[in-house]
């Protein structure tokens, strides 16, 4: 279940290691592509096209996995059946012998007045495309308006979350508006203001003091106002109110304040820690026959660290390696051989801040500026799964560097304000009772 980094790595390994006589493989996913999530801010900024970061699951000539186009909205672990809501809105059941759970994560939100109605996220391809349209629309509307107050509000943007997603989003979109405003002679560039807000005391603390300070310097030099130790108190259609009392006239709030495991995890009745499924080092779910979990939804023990109780962070490099490790353990289980625990030492972090800027820490080496951005883009380019994707991304980077952007809107969801719920379907999951209503015939067969 799931076509993210973990799920796709697992499926590809299973296809290579298992024969058709040994196993049938089914992938449950609403989309027939793997999203390269770290490059989403560049899609929002128009540096990359949406298709370049959506890696097709059907391109491989060796492909033999059956793909069911839908999201898993419930699991009956006793009957070993998944309930899937297809993209046509129908409910179908999929029985399993072994289920690999990699449903990923959703944007973490809080009970803040107005947040559900007015915040936008940066977790899906559709959200990135929508945010680009929305930001350019604010420039268009501000340029057409003769009301100074409205113009100022439309040109003030707030991003919440000082982690990688929020920092890269603010940096890349600031580059978008900085370049776009040159095409709007009626707009004063000084009116465009970007705010990056985070409740944490430091910006991207995982990078360390030196690189965190370098990232802060890059952002402030670009005119992005960074407010730490501050969050959002409330939001409405016209303003964002911060916990320090400031009221920012703004029509744009981009919410990237962390992630939470898929709501599906809470419906299983299994033990969790920090919202993630408790699993063994081999990534089996204790007490559930044939159930495996990995990626953002699982608290996989980090055996590479000496720290007691350490769990792997929800990063792409861990997810890809966990997918391969689960596949190997599944093959070992089917063939009656020994499974092995997952162990991987983190290789470092890369952050692309757009333009010629970045901060990176590959293998513990601290870099910032152009060298850091070169490392970040080199890492992402190498991590892309297919040659076609690598060609598209490299072509997009070169074309953007030479020709720039046309700053056009596609009209995506033009008549409706896209919310977190609209894009991430966080309210689509079934209760255990609703699941059993769909799986009753299977439970009878088990009994």
Automatic annotation (TrEMBL):
Keywords: FAD, Flavoprotein, NAD, Oxidoreductase
SUPFAM superfamilies to which the protein is assigned, alphabetical: FAD/NAD(P)-binding domain (SSF51905)
UniProt domain FAD/NAD(P)-binding: residue ranges: 2-323
Family of the protein in this entry: Belongs to the NADH dehydrogenase family.
Keyword hit for Repeat: no
Organism listed in the record: Streptomyces gulbargensis
Stated name of the protein: NAD(P)/FAD-dependent oxidoreductase
Domain of life per record: Bacteria
Keyword Flavoprotein among UniProt keywords: yes
């Amino acid at each position: 279940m799931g076509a993210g980094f973990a799920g796709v790595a697992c499926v590809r390994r299973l296809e290579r290691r298992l024969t058709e006589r040994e196993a049938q493989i089914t992938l449950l996913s609403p989309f027939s592509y793997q999203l390269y999530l770290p490059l989403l801010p560049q899609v929002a900024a128009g540096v990359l096209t949406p298709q370049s970061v959506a890696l097709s699951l059907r391109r491989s000539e060796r492909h033999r996995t059956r793909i069911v186009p839908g999201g898993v909205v419930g699991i009956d672990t006793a009957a070993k059946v998944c309930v899937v809501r297809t993209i046509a809105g129908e409910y179908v059941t999929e029985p399993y012998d072994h289920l690999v759970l990699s449903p990923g994560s959703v944007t973490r939100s809080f009970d803040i007045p107005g947040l559900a109605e007015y915040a936008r996220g940066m977790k899906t391809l559709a959200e990135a495309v929508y945010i680009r349209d929305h930001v350019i629309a604010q420039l268009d509307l501000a340029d057409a308006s003769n009301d100074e107050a409205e113009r100022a509000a439309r040109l003030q943007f707030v991003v919440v979350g000082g982690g990688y997603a929020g920092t890269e989003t603010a940096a890349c979109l600031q580059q978008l508006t900085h370049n776009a405003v040159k095409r709007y002679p009626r707009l004063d560039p000084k009116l465009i203001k970007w705010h990056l807000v985070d409740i944490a005391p430091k910006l991207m603390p995982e990078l360390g003091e030196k690189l965190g300070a370098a990232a802060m310097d890059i952002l402030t030099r670009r005119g992005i106002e960074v407010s730490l130790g501050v969050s959002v108190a409330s939001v409405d259609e016209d303003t964002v109110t911060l916990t320090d009392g400031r009221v920012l006239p703004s029509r744009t709030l981009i919410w990237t304040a962390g992630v939470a495991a898929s709501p599906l995890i809470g419906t299983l009745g299994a033990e969790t820690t920090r919202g993630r499924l408790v699993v063994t080092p081999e990534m089996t779910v204790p007490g559930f026959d044939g159930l495996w979990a990995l990626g953002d939804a699982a608290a996989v023990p980090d055996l590479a660290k000496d720290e007691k109780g350490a769990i792997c962070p929800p990063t792409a490099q861990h997810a890809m390696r966990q997918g391969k490790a689960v596949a190997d353990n599944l093959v070992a289980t089917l063939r009656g051989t020994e499974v092995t625990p997952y162990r991987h030492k983190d290789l470092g972090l890369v952050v692309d801040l757009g333009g010629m800027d970045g901060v990176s820490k590959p293998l513990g080496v601290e870099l910032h500026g152009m060298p850091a951005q070169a490392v970040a883009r080199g890492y992402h380019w190498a991590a892309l799964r297919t040659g076609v994707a690598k060609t598209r991304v490299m072509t997009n980077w070169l074309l953007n560097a030479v020709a720039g952007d046309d700053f056009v809107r596609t009209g995506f969801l033009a008549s409706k304000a896209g919310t977190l719920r609209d894009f991430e379907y966080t309210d689509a999951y079934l209760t255990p009772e609703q699941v059993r209503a769909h799986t009753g015939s299977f439970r009878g067969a088990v009994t």
